[in-house]
Structure formats: C-alpha cells, structure tokens
Amino acid sequence: MTVLVDCQGLTKRFGHKAVLQQLDLQIHAGAAVALVGANGAGKTTLLSLLCGYIQPDHGRVEVLGHQAGSPALNGRLGALPQDAQFDPDFGLAMQLHWLARLQGMSVAKSRQETERVLALVDLTAEAGSKVAQLSHGMRKRLAIAQSLLGEPELVLLDEPTAGLDPLHAKALRDCIQRLSAHCTFVISSHNLFELEQLCGTVLMLEQGRIRQQVAQVSETAVLRLQLCQENYQSLLPLLEQLPGFVSWQCTSPLQLELQYDAVTASDFDVQLLQVLHQQGIGYRQLSRGQSLEQQLFQSGG
Ligand SMILES: Nc1ncnc2c1ncn2[C@@H]1O[C@H](COP(=O)(O)OP(=O)(O)OP(=O)(O)O)[C@@H](O)[C@H]1O
User: Fold this and answer.
1) Which of 34, 49, 119, 130 could form a disulfide with 202 if both were Cys (CB 3.0 to 4.6 A apart)?
2) Which stretches make up the ABC transporter domain (predicted)?
C-alpha cells in the first residue's frame, strides 16, 4: 500500500510546552483518515507540520516521499487550514485562478480547474463576487475549493464542516465521499458522526502522540437493538441460532448489542426483525454499528 505520510519521532514545542512528543505516524492511500483529539491536543499543529507551514523541533516528516514543505508537493498536496484567508477585495474565481497558476497550471487549465472546484462547493453563481461579500460559510467553502485545485493525491482538511449550514455540510460530506475514490483525505474534526460516515481509520491524538487507532472496516458488524420490554430472555436462544450470529451483550436494561459476521450474514438484520415479529417482541430502534464515540471513549483505551 502506498505510504502518503511518514512521521518518525516528531516533536513540536511552543515555548516550554511540548505539543507533539516523539510521534510516529504512517498514513496510507485509501479511505479517508480522521484525526480526533481534545481542544489543544495538537491536531492543527500536526496538519501544519505536514503542510510544511511550521518546522518540527525533532523528527522527520515525509509527505508523498518528500520532506514536508518541498516545492515538489505543489499540486499534489491540498490543504484547508483552520484559519484560511483570502483577499476580501478580489473576486473568488480570480483568486482561485491565481492559486492554480502558482501551482504551475496553464491559463486554460487554471480556468477549467477554477470552474470545477467552484462547482464542487456550490459557489459557481458567486464566481464573480468579491470575497468581502461572502458569508462565513461561503468563505469556508471557497477555502475547501482551493484545497481541491489540481486534483491533489492527498488533501488535509482542518474542521471542514465547522460553520457550514446542515445542507452544505452534507453536500461537502457527499463530495468528500465521491472524491475519496481518487484521493486520500485526512480530516480533523470534532464531529464524530461525520467522521464515522467518511473515514476508514480514526487516529486519536492525546498527550502528544497517536493514542488510539480505530479501523472502522471490520468483518464483524454490530447491531444495536432498543427493546420496549425487559422480558426478552426468550429471545436470546433464538438469536444465538441465527446464521452468522457471533455474540450478544446487554449494554443497558433495554438495549442489546449484537455482533454478527457481516461477510456471511449480510441479511442478519432482516432475520432479526423476523424473529422479533414471530415472538411478538416490540422494539423501539434498530441501528447499525458501535458508534465511534463508544469505540473511542468506552473501550478503556
Ligand atoms: N503558534 C503557537 N504559539 C504558541 N502556542 C501554540 C501555537 N500554536 C498552537 N499552540 C498551542 O499548541 C497546542 C495545540 O494547539 P492546536 O491548535 O494544534 O490544537 P488542536 O488539537 O487543533 O485544538 P482545537 O481542537 O481547539 O482546534 C495548544 O496548547 C495551543 O495553545
């Protein structure tokens, strides 16, 4: 698998404060990678190091086989910085066009790319407007458009949907999902629901290091079943007989968590609903998976 990011022994201090300490990290090409951690954990610092905006005190940062910040990464690495700024007095399309030209694109290619990325973030109608005329959310979408110029192989997004209305946040998630077929995203966000939908791997930053790595793709799938009544004991032996059944766990008085083999029993949920119906057992909700929140904060690690 292609290694896109390779960090070894990365240490970054601000004054006496060590934000990253001997951090090792490898990111491979493929499904989007989430970066999570408390406020001040160092997510933006790590992304800034990968972009070469700041330098490490110790350690090595390689991106796409080059030292971070190398001109060789122009057009191959895209980034949405947390505090991305544009000149308020110039038009959107004009500024994207300049940025594309700075990446080395021809005039024609720059125009084409500008149109493409503005369409991706639903800003085509505002192409001629000045940045000063845009709302906060529109500026954010413009910054995202900028990160996608030139179809980079790796795109680092620092809190991409923060400040976006729900409709545009969803549109952006759909866009990231579509583009993920050809490009690897690293997304820093506090929105675990969003990361759950978008990312194959979740990296949790704590005390300067990658504390946990959660792979979300698994052969064992989980269903959460919220029941209406507590006397469901008769149900358990029937569940255990269902093809693909792996285990059950009672997570609260009315909630069961069921594990099953997602490869051989893709219709396990249908079978489960049939058993509930046959037994006359009412349920409130059936949902998929162990939430990312549970995986990160209830696994004891
Ligand atoms: N330029 C700087 N000078 C001094 N301290 C800094 C600087 N940049 C970041 N820090 C400190 O480094 C720590 C990590 O900050 P960083 O912005 O990387 O965290 P974060 O995980 O992105 O946080 P948040 O979730 O709040 O965005 C914080 O304690 C912050 O105060």
Assistant:
1) 34
2) 5-232
